[in-house]
């Protein structure tokens, strides 16, 4: 089954070198030839550093043998049913006489910046450029994340851990756009975490004051914007027994989450292994806030939580929004 969610596919490609083929329709001989170039480059699909994406506007391609074979090899193909993506990327052009295909290859780096654009017939050149990109020394840049110690007191951290231990929390899902609704869905391949809402007003008030006085001034100094609102008060637990983790994602990709500006991770303990933050678009480096400290970063950044391999990682994870730059 060909995917329909181009945005989700593209977002998940961050952190890898991306080769995109806007082929429009496999029924066109030249486009079929370009797909054949990929079929003769099987090494692309076995390299975890590479994502190969294909875009078609032809629903019949779901039954095309060559497209199906490429999908079986690992290529991600989606149908641009409303043609919005293809129009935006200049792969089709509308005129009074109908649509004109303008298929081509697009090469991006792990931060999803364009590094090459190649005509349809230059597929071998596009693959050669990708291979040169892969051979270059890997950049391991620092992610634009703010790491701060001493955001909350140790006694407050212990109280939140005890609260979660008493009530256990519940499995939390991921937000997906289904039709015109943003809904929470469970997908253990993407996320394993148990969350507990903080309903005690005193505990909420302490956290709000700590964020306001110990975090927000540094956010304003570092990012020249001052968030004014907090979304959600909760305690989260990543448990090694659950192989808890959170696969690469962004925090503001649906209409119901688009208001989020900053994600905040405040670690409540440090007696665990794994469970670190990674920003794939900026390399393989991992980040961990000290106990009672915080990491703050833009909700637009692709990030993941690595699998907890021993112990339990407890954290409180608010989002900040509002304010003006």
UniProtKB/TrEMBL annotation:
InterPro entries: AhpC/TSA, Oxoglu/Fe-dep_dioxygenase_dom, Pro_4_hyd_alph, Pro_4_hyd_alph_FE2OG_OXY, Thioredoxin-like_sf. Its cofactor is L-ascorbate. GO terms for molecular function: antioxidant activity; dioxygenase activity; iron ion binding; L-ascorbic acid binding; oxidoreductase activity, acting on paired donors, with incorporation or reduction of molecular oxygen. SUPFAM superfamilies: Thioredoxin-like (SSF52833). Keywords: Dioxygenase, Iron, Metal-binding, Oxidoreductase, Vitamin C. The keyword Metal-binding applies. Pfam families: 2OG-FeII_Oxy_3 (PF13640), AhpC-TSA (PF00578). Residues 229-323 form the Fe2OG dioxygenase domain. This is Predicted 2-oxoglutarate-and Fe(II)-dependent dioxygenase YbiX. It comes from Sphingomonas palmae.
């Amino acid at each position: 089954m060909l995917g329909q969610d181009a945005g989700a596919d593209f977002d998940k490609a961050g952190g890898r070198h991306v080769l995109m083929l806007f082929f429009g329709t496999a029924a066109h001989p030249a486009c079929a030839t370009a797909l054949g170039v990929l079929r003769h480059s099987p090494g692309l699909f076995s390299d975890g550093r590479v994502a190969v994406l294909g875009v078609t506007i032809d629903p019949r391609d779901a039954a095309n043998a060559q497209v199906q074979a490429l999908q079986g090899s690992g290529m991600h193909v989606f149908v641009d049913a409303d043609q919005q993506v293809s129009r935006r990327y200049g792969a089709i052009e509308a005129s009074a006489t109908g649509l004109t295909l303008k298929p081509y290859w697009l090469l991006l780096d792990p931060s999803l910046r364009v590094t090459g654009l190649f005509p349809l017939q230059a597929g071998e050149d596009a693959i050669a450029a990708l291979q040169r990109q892969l051979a270059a020394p890997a950049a391991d840049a620092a992610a634009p994340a703010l790491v701060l110690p001493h955001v909350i007191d140790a006694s407050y951290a212990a109280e939140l851990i005890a609260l979660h231990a008493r009530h256990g929390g519940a499995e939390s899902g991921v937000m997906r756009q289904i039709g015109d609704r943003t809904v929470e869905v469970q997908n253990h391949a993407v996320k394993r975490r148990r969350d507990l809402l903080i309903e005690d007003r005193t505990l909420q008030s302490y956290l709000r004051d700590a964020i306001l006085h110990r975090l927000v001034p540094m956010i304003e100094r570092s990012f020249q914007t001052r968030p004014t609102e907090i979304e959600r008060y909760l305690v989260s637990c990543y448990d090694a027994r659950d192989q808890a983790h959170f696969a690469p994602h962004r925090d503001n990709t649906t209409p119901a989450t688009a208001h989020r500006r900053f994600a905040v991770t405040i670690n409540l303990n440090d007696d665990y292994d794994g469970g670190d933050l990674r920003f794939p678009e900026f390399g393989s480096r991992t980040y961990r806030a000290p106990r009672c400290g915080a990491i703050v970063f833009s909700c637009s950044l692709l990030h993941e939580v690595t699998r907890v391999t021993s112990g339990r990682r407890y954290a409180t994870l608010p989002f900040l929004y509002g304010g003006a730059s």
